[in-house]
Design brief:
By secondary structure, this protein is mainly alpha-helical. Helix content is about 55%, strand content about 10%.
Length: about 260
């Protein structure tokens, strides 16, 4: 916090505190001031060392605990009886202490500002480098996206071609499947017909055989060929009307037995 001559508040010079002072404060001969908490802790050790500038405070009046808002009685009596030059000297020294605190605070604020500005510049530099790196990465990614889009378009085109080919193959397959089914059905019908034909032929042969057995045949005839030797001729009438002759030579019969012609 900045402080000017018009301000009526001092700040603790302890590096980690920087709190506004009120009530009591510890003032040193090296023109530093500390809050009651840190002054009591730091100046209770011997030898006392200033936490701000590391100066040795060995004198009896090098460290004074003072009240920042004294009473009216104290103000009336503290300089009473002193010569004007002494009062002016005390006042000038008090004003010099205050001026030093203002100057010190200004230096601290300038140092803080310079450090913050340095950090800001470093951060801006880092940010600029990061932005440049991000821009390069973004440009590379854009190029990669463009190439991937081209590849995707190529894949889409190939996919469309493959889909058309697949549809054409499916149509051909359906056509071939229909032809196969019709041929298989035709072969099944032809095979069934071929299996039924032997049964029909067998039934026809059986019917023919049964008809032949049921057809009446002529009685065989035995004809005499002469008194010396007999020859028997057998003739039978087939179902189809054709005649077949079988000739048998009978052995010489006894002349005493009569010849029998059987019909």
């Amino acid at each position: 916090m900045a402080m000017s001559l018009g301000d009526d508040t001092l700040l603790c010079n302890y590096p980690k505190c920087r709190a506004k002072l009120s009530g009591f404060a510890w003032v040193t001969a090296c023109s530093h001031v500390f809050c009651d908490q840190h002054g009591s802790g730091e100046f209770s050790r011997s030898p006392a060392i200033c936490p701000a500038c590391s100066s040795a405070l060995s004198g009896k009046l090098d460290i004074v605990r003072t009240e920042l808002s004294p009473s009216e009685e104290y103000k009336a009596m503290v300089l009473a009886g002193l010569r004007p030059d002494i009062v002016l000297d005390i006042s000038s020294r008090a004003l010099a202490f205050w001026s030093y605190q203002v100057h010190q605070e200004r230096m601290y604020q300038e140092y803080s500002l310079s450090r913050a500005d340095t950090q800001l510049k470093q951060m801006e530099k880092v940010l600029t480098q990061q932005n440049q790196s991000r821009e390069l990465e973004l440009t590379a990614m854009r190029g990669e996206i463009a190439s991937l889009k081209k590849v995707m378009e190529e894949y889409k085109r190939k996919y469309s071609e493959v889909s058309e080919r697949l549809m054409e193959r499916n149509r051909q397959y359906q056509k071939l499947q229909g032809l196969y089914d019709s041929l298989r059905l035709r072969n099944m019908v032809v095979g069934a017909g071929e299996r039924e034909m032997p049964l029909l032929h067998g039934n026809q042969d059986l019917n023919i055989a049964m008809a032949r057995q049921a057809t009446p045949q002529r009685s065989p005839q035995f004809l005499s060929a002469g008194p010396v030797g007999d020859a028997r001729f057998f003739s039978c009438l087939e179902a189809d009307g054709a005649k077949t002759f079988f000739q048998f030579s009978s052995p010489a019969r006894d002349k005493s037995r009569p010849f029998i012609n059987k019909h």
